[in-house]
Every structure is written in C-alpha cells, then in structure tokens.
Amino acid sequence: MMAARDPHRFVNDLGDEAVERLISRLESRAKDSVFTSLIDKYSSLLLLTDPAKVLEVGCGTGAMIRSFVRSKNFNGHAFGVDQSGSFINAAKSFARHEHLENRLQFQIGDAHNLDFPSASFDTVIANTLISHVSDPARVLEEMARVVWPGGTIAVFDGDYASLTYAFPDHDFGRQMDSALATASFNNPRVMRDLPRMLDTYGLQLVSAWGDAVVEIGEGSYFKSFAETYAPYVTISGLMAENDVDSWLSTQREAMKSGTFFASCNYYTYLLRRV
Ligand SMILES: C[S@@+](CC[C@H](N)C(=O)[O-])C[C@H]1O[C@@H](n2cnc3c(N)ncnc32)[C@H](O)[C@@H]1O
Fold first, then answer.
1. Which one of 132, 138, 268 would you pick to mutate in the ligand 1 pocket, going by the greatest count of ligand atoms within 8 A of its CB?
2. What b-and-e string marks burial along 98-125, b requiring 16 or more CB atoms within 10 Å of the CB?
3. Is the CB of 90 under 6 A from ligand 1?
4. N or C: which end of the chain has fewer CB within 10 A?
5. Enclosing domain of residue 199
6. Average pLDDT, stretch 37-46?
C-alpha cells in the first residue's frame, strides 16, 4: 500500500492537471456561503490597527486574503505566502484582476521558515493550513515569531476526524470517512492539539469556538470536497478504486434526489502573542 500523501502538503509534486483541480477547488470553496460565513465570522472579530499589516501563511490562490482585503474594516497592506509557485502565480493573477495588487503582495515561501523578520505583522492568519503542514508546532512557532507582541494569530481549520458522509452501509461509510481524512490531511486531528501547544510559543488563548459545516438534502461544499479528495483515497491505496467510485456515485445520486447528508466540524482559535 502506498503511504497517504496530503495533496496540499505535496502540491509541488503534483502534475499540472491535479494542481488546476486544486486551484478550482480553493476558488469555488471561497464562493460557498456555508464555508465563507465561518471565515467572515472570525475575520470580522480581528481587531486591526489602522493601517494594518497582515500576513496569511499558506494562502493558496489568495481566495481568503483577497476577501479580507476587500472587507470594509481593512485599511493597510496584506501579504500571502505559499509553498506552491503555481498557487502564488494564480494568486497574483486573481489579485490583479480584482485591482488589489497595490494592497496585497504574494510570495513563495515555507510556513516552517518564514522569510520575514521577527515582529513584522500585527495579524497573522492560517486558514486551513495547519492540517496540511509537515510540522504544525514549528509553523505555530514561526507565526508567533513574525507577529508583534500583543498582535493576533488566527488559526482556522477542520477537525477531519469529525468528517462524515452518510452512506447506507454504515461500516463502509465509516471506513470511507476515515480514508478521506487520512488521504487528504497530514494532521486531521491537529485542531484538538492546539490548546496544549500555545504556552511553548508565548501564545495566549483569546477565544476559540467550533462550527459545524452541514449540508442536508443538497450538497455543494461537500460535493466539491468529495470530487476533489476521493481520488486521493485510491491514489493512497487506502481503498479499492471501484469502491471509491461507487461511494462517489452514491453521493451524487443522494445530491440529485435531495437525500444527501454530510458534515464536518471546524474550529477557530484567536491567539495573542504575549
Ligand atoms: C487548503 S489550502 C488553503 C489555502 C488558503 N489558505 C485558503 O483558505 O484558500 C492549504 C495551503 O497550504 C499550503 N501549504 C501547505 N504546506 C505548506 C508549507 N509548508 N508552507 C507554505 N504553504 C504550505 C498549500 O500549498 C495550500 O495552498
């Protein structure tokens, strides 16, 4: 059996077609109201200085940080860093298209070794990054280093051990839920570990909460999720291709007939650097 390789962690090893599919997924996810309401909720709670200097680590195509820069309460300059040159090129092009290039800068970089001096930003964001990185503790340490003392770190991600799609055969459905989480996320349970990691890096918990993303009847967010990530279950050798294909057809049928059900918990941590 091949080892599971989280596509976002190993994005630089993927072919062009697979990268294009991830770009589409990131952009479509950012238009999905079920999901964006959670991001808007924590973004609106960030107390920004005026002008603000904000960094998004693991920005992908820049979908999250573009919407942040467009928001009413933002005045200042934002930066996005991602390990993937293809994502960064896409991010620059989307930002140009939206005339945001004067307020938003993107660069290639590794979240484990950020190329910024210490205490450079008043807010640092990791939006669905921490579940994908090789070493979450090191990424948190880097985020704590580049934020000013008194500044804010926001960490938002899914708890993928809670990811579930309804399936008539419960045992098979449970196996598929677990395979999807293993194949797609290097650290599917990391959001449960964060409280134990904060002290070491001089971070204080300001607030934290959970939200469930749930789709019943119709599927949109979880449709794109299943179509993007189910192939990695087969690629990882976790389940047989025909089993994964039949699971996916059952999900598509359920969406057509209005009998679909899927859910996953997402958590937000707002942290202060002491
Ligand atoms: C699910 S995407 C989230 C993208 C973006 N934050 C958003 O919400 O649209 C995860 C991103 O983390 C990036 N990533 C994973 N490991 C990284 C690392 N070590 N350094 C920088 N970026 C990384 C991937 O390239 C990918 O763009």
1. 132
2. eebeebbbbeebbbbebebeeebbbbbb
3. no
4. N
5. 11-159+187-211+266-273
6. 93
